[in-house]
Amino acid sequence: MKLLMLGRKKHSSILETIGRILELEKVQFEIIYFDDSTEKKLTGALKDAELFFMIPESLTGKEISREEECGLCLLEAIAVGYMIAHKGRILFFGTDPSMFNDIFYGEPVAGSIGEALSYFRREKKIFESNKKLLEARGIISEAQLSFSGRGFIEAVENGMQNETQAFLDAGFSTETETPEGVPLLNIAVRNGNLELCRLLMSYDASLNIIARDRCSSPVMDAVTAVKPEIAEILIDGGADLNFKNRNGQSALIVAIGARMDDIANLLIEKGADITLKDSLGMTAGQYAKMFSLTEIYEKLESKL
């Protein structure tokens, strides 16, 4: 966002104070004083700007000299006319906002530096959001994906990191799911895509969302896919270790049943409930004993 601030030399303290604060907030701006400007310089600056801030002098009932009327007032009129004609985002400054209503058709007016800065901050957020959306649309279009939930799912299914990032930047929900009821995070987990899992988690994807096709949580899908590194980041992120699937099995029971010693050890170390029973009334320890997983069984027994 490029901000153009306009006024006279007598307004320098206001404009420069705002400018110093905006510099700290990394807002791009330019200050032009009508006193030392020309019509060419002014119109060039107006064309380059995306947001306008002006302190009118001659257009708000102030007494002016004949010299001002011929020079500075003309530049002020050009500036206002350009801004209104091009429907630019305009903020005027004045301690008596009521005098602006009839002249400037209800354009916003700030009565203090604080009000002006609040306005600029809001506009910066809107500008950055719109810019991010346009960039995201470009990335998605270039990848020949539809700008839709289906396109988002396709990006995740195919491990398209940049395109997935673009959908997220465009505001698509991390809880988007396939027609079969498989959420995006579960897709990334099942595909073993660690970086995509991290990306979705950075956008606050639910770590306990359930895939309806298997009645499985992301952690359980990580266990089934034999992806201990993914299971670990989910667990460290705060995922529930004790969710039970439709058979009443926890992730630990599934890991032991599939003879996945490494993942079983990870779940035990991370605090999985070892007393949970499945629909058959069996615990993780009982399954470990049944399958002769001596080390796992002894570890579980030591924790009872």
In words, what does this structure look like?
The chain is built from 16 helices and five strands. The protein is of the alpha/beta class. Helix content is 52%, strand content 8%. It has a domain at 2-111: Glycoside hydrolase family 3 C-terminal domain (Rossmann fold, 3-Layer(aba) Sandwich). It has a five-stranded parallel sheet with strand order 2-1-3-4-5, with helices on both faces. The relative contact order is 0.06. The longest helix has 30 residues, at 113-142. The model has no long low-confidence stretch (mean pLDDT 89). The chain is elongated, with a radius of gyration of 31 Å. The chain has helices at residues 12-24, 39-48, 66-70, 72-85, 101-104, 113-142, 149-157, 161-169, 184-190, 194-202, 218-224, 228-236, 251-257, 261-269, 284-290, 294-303; strands spanning 2-7, 28-33, 51-54, 89-93, 109-110.
